[in-house]
């Protein structure tokens, strides 16, 4: 099993690179943001609940997010591995993922962290708003909130994997191909 936690702040390029990694390694891509957005579109109870947090740039509570992620993993018993995109976003989520995957004897292989500075992130998110239709991309106050939440609650998750010797930082500036090559080099190590 190849279980990759693809990490980084909003706008770092996790979704873009996930598409390419899925192609190269035959993994299942699980993006908690995408799953929440699909639930919003389908007007499910989970979607209605998640939307109230997402629209403000806040995190959806850990208990629902963890339960949702675990049920998505369970839908793919034949998977060769997973790309976790946007999860774990808190230390509590990381601890829950460890327990869940250890019980299946398929632990996280590595965390690959895309590194992009804040000014570039903001520019990318505002540019993405033109096409994404995402309300959380078009509002500078919400973008700032997401970055602040990332720095306060999500950035410490890197330390969780660093302690396990599983952390690799990846320069997230360059062409899509250049960054993909850096990710592949890290996966091969
Ligand atoms: P980005 O990485 O660009 O912020 P995502 O699609 O990953 O976009 O996430 C969008 C929103 O979905 C987040 O701001 C948050 O409200 C919610 N979300 C996604 N993943 C999680 C998670 N693991 N825990 C809590 N909330 C989450």
How would you explain this protein's 3D organization?
By secondary structure, the protein is of the alpha/beta class. It has one domain: Rossmann fold, CATH 3.40.50.300. It has 10 helices and 5 strands. It has helices at residues 14-25, 32-41, 45-54, 62-74, 91-103, 118-132, 135-138, 140-154, 156-163, 176-188; strands spanning 2-7, 28-31, 81-85, 110-115, 167-171. Strands 2-3-1-4-5 form a 5-stranded parallel sheet, with helices on both faces. Helix 1 crosses helix 10 and helix 6 (118-132) crosses helix 8. The structure holds adenosine-5'-diphosphate (ADP).
Question: How do the strands and helices of this protein lay out in sequence?
Answer:
Blueprint: E1 2-7, H1 14-25, E2 28-31, H2 32-41, H3 45-54, H4 62-74, E3 81-85, H5 91-103, E4 110-115, H6 118-132, H7 135-138, H8 140-154, H9 156-163, E5 167-171, H10 176-188
Parallel strand pairs: 1-3, 1-4, 2-3, 4-5
Helix pairs in contact: 1-10, 2-3, 4-5, 6-8
This protein binds adenosine-5'-diphosphate.
- Work out the helix count: 10
Bound molecules: adenosine-5'-diphosphate
CATH superfamily: P-loop containing nucleotide triphosphate hydrolases
Detail the poorly predicted runs. Answer: none
Tell me the overall shape. Answer: globular
- How many distinct beta strands? 5
Structural class designation: alpha/beta
Determine the CATH topology: Rossmann fold
| Total number of distinct structural domains | 1
What multimeric state do the chains show?
single chain
**Biggest beta-sheet profile:** 5 strands, parallel
Architecture in CATH?
3-Layer(aba) Sandwich
Radius of gyration: 16 Å
